Predict the 3D structure of the following.
Amino acid sequence: EVFAGQRVVAVSAGQYHSFAITADGSVWGWGDGDNGKLGHGDSERQLLPKKVEALADQRGVAVSAGAAHSLAITADGALWSWGGGVYGKLGHGDWQRQLLPKKVQAFAGQRVVAVSAGGHHSLALTADGAAWSWGGAGWGKLGHGDEQRQLLPKEVEALASQHVIAVSAGDFHSFALTADGS
């Protein structure tokens, strides 16, 4: 068994791929590797969990698998993204796919504490309780009051007066939970 003798502390299931984080902070990906969404540097399918070596010198604390992309937070509060970049959902300011995890520079100097990968968009939560969204904006799922795609993370202004404690991205919608239970 791949995880024999190890403790798994976090998991995420995407459309066709999955991730786990073990107690030592290792990130493991398996399933469909299309667009490099497993973070192994290729598009190969993995039938068993395989360690994401590109994050080996980091300590993973959270991971989220979307449809064709993936997101992870490391212990230093950095956000990493990889996989398909259509609609800018990786947050690097372009549509480029990334075969290996790449740090999202828009969050430099901030601490990301939660993340969620949707179908064509991404959500993040920073330590100050701010919610951020980027990628495809159809159906208003980014929460910016329009359907304008965002190539870089943008704070959700409608939630600026709230302290957000959790976010979740679906295929065509998003959720945020605030500290007052709303």
